[in-house]
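Progress note, project year one: complex with flavin-adenine dinucleotide.
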Amino acid sequence: MPISPEQQAEIDAQRAQSAPTLRAVSEGMEAHLYTAHEVLDHGFIRVIDYMGDDAAICQAARVSYGKGTKSVQNDEGLIRYLMRHWHSTPFEMCEIKLHVKLPVFVARQWIRHRTANVNEYSARYSILDREFYIPAPEHVNAQSVVNNQGRGGVLEGAEAARVLEILKSDSNRAYDNYEAMIGTEGPDGEAQDGLARELARMNLPTNIYTQWYWKVDLHNLFHFLRLRADPHAQYEIRVYADAICKVVADWVPAAYGAFEDYRLGGASLSGRALDCIRRMLAGEEMTQENSGMSKGEWREFEGVIR
Ligand SMILES: Cc1cc2nc3c(=O)[nH]c(=O)nc-3n(C[C@H](O)[C@H](O)[C@H](O)COP(=O)(O)OP(=O)(O)OC[C@H]3O[C@@H](n4cnc5c(N)ncnc54)[C@H](O)[C@@H]3O)c2cc1C
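Model obtained:
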């Protein structure tokens, strides 16, 4: 269950309240505030708090007072200019705080993004829930034969069933032993006579879910999204990045539009690649051999231009 009834009641109570503010408000983000967007089988992302909007980026860029907005068109043009020229600090003026529930093996990839503030659920203090990521059948793939860091075709029939059964039974067996090692609970939920929670957890598999609060500024969030909403990223983290992209598009539409165009949709080209394009435009027949690029570079270059 991605959201427990208690968490949903808390979300409903938070959304039922509102308070007047003099701060900049993004209407698009207000619609998302506190609401959980489900990801994978038990996970979610939800916005806990945010600061700033498109105008805050422009205001910082102009280092002016007041709203800093001349017109929407002007702001959009300025934001696109900032994105195009890697003028990144104005984007750092916006912040987002997310509550994320995710499998531990996804959290290991996510935590590599060091330019954020994190506070994680303590499995030393609390007992983890019996919630494990079990991939949907269409995401149970064979190892790729062309990319060591990727997936091949979907496993079918008995082979897929065997893998899913192993994942489920190993997870449950590990959790049964986790509970057995922790022992009984006292009246206030404290462990009695059992192994310390900080030790009992070490046998749990990395598909168990954890939760954290993750706060990051928009510049570093875009960096995270560029890497993790990319087809090269593992599916299980990509779906989180995709869910965050939808929220960011509503929060700062102009900044997200520029990010989508220049970063997600754009590509950076080497000097050799640019030279190759110039020679192509001049009518020269270009191949990997006369381009000066390696086979890998040429394959990626063709992937960009064809
Ligand atoms: C498809 C994919 C495959 C990957 N495969 C592997 C792998 O096999 N093994 C592995 O270990 N990792 C792997 N990674 C993780 C990757 O190497 C980065 O650690 C991760 O993407 C975080 O990127 P970052 O350091 O740019 O982000 P952040 O930590 O958010 O940093 C953002 C930027 O801040 C600057 N910065 C932050 N900290 C420092 C610092 N201490 N010193 C200097 N500059 C700093 C850098 O410019 C950096 O780009 C992979 C990532 C992806 C997307």
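The chain is about 45% helix and 15% strand.
The chain has a mean pLDDT of 91.
No further modelling is planned for this target in the current period.
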